[in-house]
Amino acid sequence: NTESNSSRGALIVLEGLDRCGKTSQSGRLYKYLDEQGHSVESWRFPDRNTGVGQMISSYLANKSQLDDHAIHLLFSANRWEKRSLMEEKLKSGTTLIVDRYSYSGVAFSSAKGLDIGWCKAPEIGLLAPDLVVYLDISPEKAAERGGYGDERYEQLEFQKKVAGSYLALRDSSWKVIDATLSIEDIEKKLREVVLDCMMTCHKGKALSHLWP
Ligand code: Z5A
Predict the structure, then answer these.
(1) In the prediction, which pLDDT does 170 show?
(2) DSSP for 39-89?
(3) Can you give the pLDDT at residue 180?
(4) What's the alpha-carbon Rg for the chain, to the nearest Å?
């Protein structure tokens, strides 16, 4: 399930509830690492630019309806269509900062009542992150931030269920950062854990696959 590769990039994943600050922090982290001379890219899932991503986007905007299982598989397919490029980038030494990944897939679908084992199955074989950072905020506090838009999952009651699903998914390897701190304080904490992880990968930590 593993292979060794020296001086590769790190796969960094940011997770959390809607409005927890992932987009803001991804942008700042990208800018910082880029300015430090690291090879780095900022990614996000869903990637709405692919054909599958456009189906997902239309579903999230309530412009189309899909069975809960079907949309779950589309989110997963959207990661699979980027898998080989992801591996290529990491092996060539580029660090990827990824806003949402398989954990979002499992957390959001299991919050709808789908079986967690079923939700995890299509993710098996995707690359495992070297670091998962969870930006921790209560659903109530998140809802106060700039208000929710019109997208399908942007509702307090549903976000409460998602928070519960994330709690069930978290393991001790996740770095949890209080997302109610100032943007600057979060940024500082994030940099520390990310630089530490990048160093480990650079020293030859092997790439591995979900679910470890
Ligand atoms: N989904 C799924 O079901 N299955 C899957 O497999 C995947 C996703 C991958 C689309 O995601 C939906 O797809 C998402 C999960 C589901 N649904 N929900 N909910 P998306 O990526 O398009 O949307 P999002 O991830 O929820 O992004 P977002 O709303 O843009 O939130 P964010 O990126 O976490 O936060 P932000 O834009 O950086 O900040 C939000 C606001 O808070 C903004 O006004 C900031 O200025 C403010 N902010 C940020 N940080 C702070 C701090 N520290 N203090 C105060 N205010 C702050």
Answers:
(1) 96
(2) -EEEEESS-TTSHHHHHHHHHHTTSS---HHHHHHHHHHHHHTTHHHHHHH
(3) 98
(4) 17
**Structural tokens at position 149:** 């838009």
Q: Which pTM does this prediction carry?
A: 0.96
Q: Determine which residue's CA is closest to atom 25 belonging to ligand 1.
A: 18
What letter would DSSP give residue 189? H
| 207: nearest Cα among 152, 97, 128, 153 | 128
45 Cα nearest atom in ligand 1:
9
CA of 136 to the centre of ligand 1 (A): 12
What pLDDT was estimated at residue 6?
53
State the distance from the centre of ligand 1 to the C-alpha of 204, rounded, in angstroms: 32
- What value does the mean pLDDT take over residues 76-101? 98
**For a substitution probing ligand 1, which of 47, 68, 145 has the most ligand atoms within 8 Å of its CB?**
145
- Which ipTM was obtained for this model? 0.97
